[in-house]
Amino acid sequence: MRRIVTGLLLLVVAVGCHAPDAPPTGAGRFDVFVLGIAQDGGLPHVGCSKGCCRSARKAGRRLYPACLGIHDTETGKLVLVEATPRIEPQLSRLHELSGRARSRQPVDAVLLTHAHIGHYLGLAQFGREVAGTKGLPVHVTPRFAGFLRTHGPWKQLVALDQIRPTTFALREVFSPIPGLFVTAIPVPHRDEFSDTVAFKIRGPQGTVVFVPDIDAWDRAPGLLEELIDGVDVAWLDATFYDGSELPGRDLSEIPHPPMVMTMERLAESARKRPGRFRFIHLNHTNPVLHDAALRKALERRGFRVAQPGERVRI
Q1: What is the pLDDT of residues 110-160, one digit of tens each?
Q2: What is the DSSP secondary-structure string of 17-74?
Q3: Is the CB of residue 314 less than 8 Å from the CB of residue 201?
Q4: What pTM, to 2 d.p., does this model score?
Q5: Residue 9 within a domain
Q6: Can you name the residues that pair with 165 across neighbouring β-strands?
């Protein structure tokens, strides 16, 4: 009897001392949905008269900017990763996929990687002219938070408490909703109004990483290895296929790692774990969006192009 009591006391002490930010264990709880795969302008693209856009307009084909949605299957809470210019159809898709219809408070938290138009302009839809949200946490870097608080129209949303810029520390775990663990990893990019991060997102059954924008993998030694370490699925910047699809443009002004270089660096890992590396944030001119044979070729090498609506359980 004394042994049983002692054992129970030890169990109580162990539970009471459990760290609140310890990673969860057990079955998968969170569904991560892809809500967009294109670069900031989507497809078709404003100002584009190329065949890719003409055919998309004629066929009614629409690809939205890169975005994820996360559904907590236990509590029903929702998280939006990026607030793109096409936020309304993306939120509607998240509600459809999760089975969680929402109105004035469409999600419980927002995560933003940086302040380029395809990643944060959708915040305006939370203002009083549209949704009129109340105290919606928007998780950003301290620099990005300062930008939102001091520049219109974002500062009005902050002043009216429609959005609440909520800062995180780089490379430190935070939880936008209970049970979901996120780490923001800084990545080199054009940082005119904010710095840029990738998000490593962990649930009880798995980990994913979302890297929609980066200038180059070798700008920071070991960065690619850090980003993909321990992840089950990696959504990686695939703005350009090989850089030749934009003749006449100075790509040094809009640098991104070409897909062909990324595939070369990750060839062995992709061969061992097919489907782990999925390309996202594709420019409207990227031939992979328009050439089925090219997509099949990269799939044979173990890579994939992300698909709108795809789900990963973590």
Answers
A1: 999 999 999 999 999 999 999 999 999 999 999 999 999 999 999 999 999
A2: T--TTPPP-SS--EEEEEEE-B-TT-BS-TT--SHHHHHHHHHT--BPBSEEEEEETT
A3: yes
A4: 0.89
A5: no
A6: 138
In a domain, 79, yes or no: yes
22 has pLDDT over 80: no
The domain in which residue 249 lies consists of 24-306
Number of domains in the chain: 1
Q: In this structure, is residue 269 part of a structural domain?
A: yes
Q: How many CB atoms lie within 10 A of CB 195?
A: 19
Tokens (6 digits) for 303: 């890579």
How many residues appear in the chain? Answer: 314
- Give the C-alpha separation, 197 to 186, whole Å: 4
- Give the integer Cα–Cα distance in Å for 18 and 12: 10
Count other C-beta atoms under 10 Å from residue 309's C-beta.
11
In a domain, 271, yes or no: yes
Instruction: Find out whether 164 and 136 touch, Cβ atoms under 8 Å.
Output: yes
